Amino acid sequence: MNWKTFYALLSRDGHVARRNLLPMLLQNLLQPLLFTFVFGRVMTTSGMLPAAYKSLLLPGVMAISMVMAGVQAVAMPLIAEFQFTREIEDRLLAPIDIGWLAVAKIITGMIQATFAGLVVIPAAWLLMGSGLKLDFGRPIEFAAVCLLVALFSSAGGLALGCSVGQTQIGLMFSLVLAPMMMFGCAYYPWSALSSFPILQIAVLANPLVYASEGLRGALAPQFPHMNTWLVIAALVAIDGLLLVLGLKKFQGKAVS
Amino acid sequence: MGIGIRIEELRKVYDTPPPSAARGGGFSFSPVRSAKSGPKKRFEIVALDGVSFEIRAGEVFGLLGPNGAGKSTTIGILTTRTRPTSGRAFIGEHDIWREQVSAKRLLGVVPQRPNLDFALTAREILVFHGAYFGQSARESEKHADELLEKFKLTDRATHMVRTFSGGMMQRLSIARAMMHNPEILFLDEPSAGLDPQTRLLLWEIIREYNRLGKTIVLTTHYMDEADALSDRLAIIDHGRIIAQGTPKELKASIPGGYLLRLRFDRAPEELIAELRKLPGVTEVRTADHIAADVYADRGGPLIGPIVNTANAAGIELHDVHIAEPSLETLFLHHTGRSLRD
User: Fold this and answer.
1) A174 and chain B: CB distance < 8 Å anywhere?
2) Distance (Å, rounded) from C-alpha B68 to C-alpha B204?
3) Does residue A87 carry a pLDDT above 80?
4) Which chain B residue's Cα is nearest to A86?
């Protein structure tokens, strides 16, 4: 293992991410924050939703931000770099096994996902006004869930980024990411789907469900949520699966 | 002092379109369908078909051939970017496919089309490239500034490269490939799209790098470039090496040396037989019943006799083109096609 090269690849991605910090933040955070304001402030203050909904919503919004940030941080540059300009070629020629380039991308994606998730908490606090009840009594559980969510979102971004061409980015959003957000138990707990038994089972294939439920269990355990150990086990399995898939797709895409 | 390359029986069969084909680089493989393919037609193109040759340490080696001949696939395999279907290639002692990391340390690549990192500035591209190869920040920054100076890019060093012109991108690509001081420098069609002045500058840079004892491998479809730069050449067509040697040896191998391409209103066998009897003619080939390629040891002095022969047979000569001994005529001799066909 060639640490100097690996570190250089990481710092290149970090350098580019820092340069694009503001657009990146706007891209990943504006939508969840608008949602937070409308549903967490407007709807609750006007009495159309109970005030307690704020605390139920926040972990879900955080999960969405993390997943969107992680997926986009890895997939979008990758799609561009594998296009006809082949910008990635120089890094593929760096003296290191090419799999490590994918690992470096995943790590940068994880950092961005975690950052995008953590930023939601103070921002939502400001936007939602009073009445937000969060519980920070389970830091280890919270950190573990965050880490696993960050990993699956950037590994998923790697797999998506290596499967989708530049012309299909719009399709990726409307076919993959939009349904994932709507059926990701971010805006409602999983148990709320009990009146739709088929849907309730089907959404279990959606990784965002475990992200939302896991963060809900860690931050707002007063609401119904899945068992934390179950969530962690599912996240570990999804992480492993997407990691293997992503690395395989990357190798296939990188070598002709 | 210098490192060579050995290639043994390389074969490459693509079962999906190669990425370079998608890039529209004028790829034109002839599809070969496998005999066993069932009702479903399988995509299969043979890009390299048993290629073997050796590149000696410290030489400038040219790989010459038309578009789609297999030049870029060869470079792809030699630079770890393409997986060979069978056969092996070595850089020095290292098997390129099995010892990729060791191989990558020794080589620098200037791609056919600039593939610069658009998220970075010119200087950052060089500095990060140095860092990938383990250079310290001070070392890589110093070297980057030297190269920017040498390639006349200093005043644009802090600009994002997406604003660069084609020629500037090409210069920066070469600077980047030299950043880690590789033992072998690959240049894939280096002067495609360059103006004549930049092209001469490029040739000078290549020669200068070669004088440091480095091995240079370049592909081109320009005969004059291959002729001017290469110590030795291989001519490749349809994935096979059809000739190799020094430019001088190769040119001497053309029968007669001169090539007269003739076009008549018709070219019956009797006329061809008469042409073969003319003094100095070594070989005559016909095509389409109206054209004849005459290989001979003289050019202009043969026109008179040719016109007389044609007149005597009642045939009209429409067009004459005389080619002096060159790699172009060599390619034509081996393939029956012009390089640009």
Assistant:
1) no
2) 28
3) yes
4) B115
